[in-house]
Amino acid sequence: MIKSMFLNLKKYSFLMSQLILKDFKVKYKRSVLGILWSLLYPVLMMSVMALVFTNMFRFRMEGVNYLVYLITGLVIWNYFNEATQLGMGSIISSFPLINKVYIPKYILPLSKCLFVGINFLLSLIPLMLIVLFTGNVAEGTKCYINIYYLIIPFIVLCAFMFTLGVSYILSCFAVFLRDTIYIYGIMLTIWQYFTPLFYSIEILPGWLQKIFVLNPLYIYINSIREIILFSRMPSIPYLIMCFLSGAVVLLLGLIIFKKNQDKFIYYA
Amino acid sequence: MIKINNVSMRFNLGVEKNNSLKNVFIRILSFKKRKKEEFWALKDVTFNIERGEVIGLIGSNGAGKSTLLKVVSGVMKPTKGSVKVNGVISPMIELGAGFDPELTARENIYLNGAILGYSKKFLNEKFDEIVEFSELKNFLDVPVKNFSSGMTAKLAFSIATVVDPEILIVDEILSVGDIKFQEKSKNKMLSMITGGTTVLYVSHSLDSIKELCTKVVWLDHGQVVKIGDPKTICDEYYEKLMGKKNEK
Considering the domain boundaries, does residue B199 fall inside one? Predict the structure, then answer.
């Protein structure tokens, strides 16, 4: 099953690229700056965050470049947030199409996750600039570009697999039960506060910290922060957990999707 | 070329009303098994299509013609039975599926072509031919939302017919565009048919069926009534329908 999917993937790569291109074109049609927004938007968002959290609320962490701490978390979180929401609706919004022409349905959530993924990669540029220019503002921080950056693509890949798996599951659920869209919106808000984006996990009681470790997004964010903020190698158990959570959820998503995809058409 | 074996297709008419959370809860709480209103769009349809044959599908509205086309083209999986297809299918069931109104004609040619399974290389080669045939050279960079329905249909037809498919599935699309374009599209279809393409063709125009097809399948309420020579079946079908009307 997986093998035939990969073979198909090659065959349908042109269709995928067209779908992703379409998303970009439609998104920026009629805006003057066009595709430049993909770069400008994260920059402006990060600036706002930087102003709010470092000047208004004055969040601080000892020995940590708080701005970079905040933005690494947000970049990963935003990717997951946006990609799963788009992926969830991808089947429903394509019903006019899959009702008429045969296309393999699994490429729809995939193309959405890739589309948001490209935006995610672009938002890494401003992040890197921040690291370069504000890296060691405070004493004792170790925020600079280092050899462990080579591990980041692996963690990003794990996060991508996890996101894709969740998108597959949600897109199925949403077809059969449209309420999923609203329920998931609420769940995302809860999930966001339970992921240490603004705060450090250390301010929480010990038992809660143990539960937080079960959150795959925390694992990804934490591993990347280890590299970017502390120039340390993430712990091996964490890296294994990164991979396992991504692979297991993706596999689960594929199985659920594959089992149900022939029924989608009745719920159009 | 195409083997259709005991194909049945069931739809649950009640499905639409039942997929909200409230109804799901009510169903769980009331311990009632969901009452299904079943509708068989196809019942035990069996026939084979050989290479080079031009099959016409006739029958009144709701007879299951379009459903059969969708099953053959792979959009739907049959509830029972199987469909075996050897060859590349070009479905012209609904033209312009996947056109994005915001995109220009040029962009939509690539998008729609990709959806129909063309490769990038193929589209690059055939781009001029598509534009030429569609007669829309001056409107290439206009968003499709600003097109008239005739222009959209012309563009869609041109993209769909640029290939030389092994199997062509056509659902009543010859009435596209103005008279000139209709004539042109009909000739295009004819040249495809004489080129040895296997065709599955749905139409309510018995004249065009008689003219184009080598064999006719008559469907009624999802079942095959008769298969055979176009002229005899079409005449019989016409008599049956008009006869019914006279009884009223």
Answer: yes
